[in-house]
Amino acid sequence: MPCPAVALVKEGTIHSTAFRTSEGIFDKIWGRMDIEGLRQFLLESNRAGYAGGDEKKWIKEADGSTTIPFVKGKWRSHDNFFGGEPYGGRTVVFYEEKAVWMMVYYGWVMEGVNPDLVYGVLRGALMRMPEEYPYRGPQEYKQGEFVYRNKWEGGLNKFSGEETIKQGEKLIYKADYRGGEVDKRRG
Length: 187
Fold this sequence. Notes:
By secondary structure, this protein is mainly β. It has two helices and 13 strands. The N terminus is likely disordered.
């Protein structure tokens, strides 16, 4: 039985009353889902994944894609992508072996630009993922002459965004992403 409301949960433009129970947080929109647990898991898995650059934990798949797995407690994720240039992929988060959240992404480095340089800046930005919006990097991150920018809308339950990197005034990288909760009800 839920106890009295303990917080107002804000996810983008959606507000709902959340109740704390012995099993975690109950939210009228998400059902029984530990939103704060998901948020913390996303922050940790991102820092341990592509942003962290520990490629020895990456799995090269038979189809040519790469998978970056991460597990912590009852949470598990896999980030699977194809690339080279351009690149695309998806990150899926599971709680107790049930898919609960995912993000898809697609991006590219402009012709004539060194991808290693760009992806170094991108990793720096991804290591600074905002705690409140753990999708990609912060709204802005500067590294030398490079500026990473990230614009998004929505909350953990449903969001979309675009990230860019400029060298001076020249656009050298762009990616789009979107995602949110999955498998909430029968289709």
